Amino acid sequence: MDYLKITEEYIISKGITPEAETRGLLVYSQDIKNGDCCLPCFKLSKAMRMSPVMISDKLRDGMTDLPSHIQRVESVNGYLNFYFDRKAMAKEVLGVMLAKGDKFEPMEPNGKTVCIDYSSINIAKPFHIGHLSSTVIGGSLHRIFRYLGYSAVGINHLGDWGTQFGKLLTAYFKWGKGEQTMDSLLELYVRFHKEAEQDDSLNDEARMWFKKIEDKDEKATAAYEEFKRITLEEVTKVYDRLGIKFDSYNGEAFFNDKMQPVVDELKSKNLLTPSDGAMIVSLDEYDMPPCLILRSDGASLYATRDLACAFYRKNTYNFDKNLYVVAYQQNLHFKQVFKVLELMGHEWAKDCVHVPFGMVSIEGGGSLSTRSGNVVKLVDVINTAVEKTKAIIADKNPELENADETAEAIGVGAVVFGALSSSRIKDIVFSLDKALNFDGETGPYLQYTHARCCSVLSKAQPSGEVDYSQLTDDDTFALVRRLNAFDDTVRIVADRYEPSILTRYLIDLAQEFNKFYIAHRIISDDKDATNARLWITRAVKNTLKNGMELILLKAPEKM
Fold it and tell me: How is domain 114-268+300-360 classified at the CATH fold level?
C-alpha cells in the first residue's frame, strides 16, 4: 500500500488546508522516533495566514476519526507527525515482499513501449571510460522499464559513418599489416593524424576513401565491414561482463537511405531555408541557432540522421517514450531536433526525451582524446577493479569458494555503481579505491550486506506464522517502511530517468539492515523473535538482490 498517499488523501479530506498547497508536502520522517511520516506546515502559512504551529495544532484537533493504518497523530513545532499501526503494516508489507519471492517478476504488461538509445560506441575506436555513464544508465533504465511492465527496446546507435573511416582506410592501406585488432586500429588512426599534420594531402586521400565507402566500392566496403566486425566482437565482451543487452544495433549508416523523405517533408511544409548554400530550419524565434539539415555540398548532418532515426523508431516501435541517453554537451542538438519534429506537426515530438549525463574521468587518467591515443579503456578499468578485488579476497577470505567469479561480480559492480551512485548530470572523477571500499556507500557494501543476509539464512530458515509484534521496534520497523517503498522508488526512477535514486534507496536499506543486525540477535532462544527476524532478513535479502539487478549488479551469496 502507498501509506503516504493514503495519509495525504485523509489530510485533504478534512478540508482544513488548501488542497493544492497540501499535495506533495507529506514525507516519510527522517527520524522514525518522530513518527512514520510528517506534514511540515511551514509552506501552508502564507495561504492560510496562520503560523505553522497553529496549522499543525488545528489539523491534529480535527483528526478524530483516524484511518485504520494510523495509531496516533502529534503536533510538534509546526510538524504534524503520524504514527502508523506498525503491527498491521508489518503484516501487509512482509506478506507482499515475500510473495514476490527470490526473483521479482516484472509487473503486468502496460501496453507501452519505450525506446532507449544508449552506449552508442564508435566503430574502430576504443570502448573507453567516457562511454561508461551512457552504457550503465541506459542499461539500468532498460531493466527498470521492463520491470515496470513496459516493452523496452534497447538501441545501440553505432557511430559507424563519417570521414573518420576514410582516414582509417587511408592509414590501413598505407601502413596496416596482417590481421587487425582494436589496438592496431587505434594506432593507425593516431598515426594518420600525426602524418596529416605534416602532409595535408592525406586528408584529400581520406575524403576519397570515404567517398568509396559511400559508393559501395568493394575494397573499401570489405575493409569497413571488417573494422565493424572487430569492434563489435571486442565490445560485446565488455557488454557481457556488464550485463548489457541491446535489441538493435542500427547506427548512423543504417539511416543513409532514410533521410530524403525527411528533407522532402521539410520542403513541403516550407520549413527549409537556404543559408550560404546550405539548407537550415530557422529556430530564431525559439532562441536557438538554426538546425542545419544539408551542407552546401548537399551532404547530410547529424540532425538529418537523428530526424530520420526518430521517424524510423516511431514507425517501427510506435514508442510512448523515445529516450536518448547522451552526454549533456548535446543538449542544444536534441532541443533543435525535437523542435524541428514539433514544427513538422508531429504530436509525438513531446515523447522524445534527452537524458543527459555528466562526464566521467579517472583519477590521474588525464584528458581523453582518440586522436592522440590518450584513452582510458573501459576494459582496463574493469580488469584493474577485478584484480584489486582478488587481492582483497586473498587477504581477507583466502578460503572463499568461487573466488574468481566473486571478484568479477564485485569488481564490475564497483565500476557500475560508481557511475550510477551520483545524480547523472554530475561530472564524476572515478576512484577505484573509493569504489572498492566495503564500508562506504559503494557497490561492494551492498553486495556484502546481501552476503551477510545469506549467511544468517544459511544458519536457520524462517517457517510458519509470523508474530508481527516482533517487528515493531524502531530498528526493525525502519526496514518494514523501507521495504514498502521499493516499487514506488523504482517508479520514481523511471519518471525521472535517474538510477541514482535506486542506488540511494538500496544503500539506505543496507545501512538500516546493518543497524538492525548489530542491535538485535537475529537467531536467539526466543523462537518467535527469531522466526520474525529471519523473515525480515529474507525480505531484505530478496529486495537487495532484485534491486541490485536493476542497477546491473550481481549479488554474491558469499564474500
Answer: Rossmann fold (3.40.50)
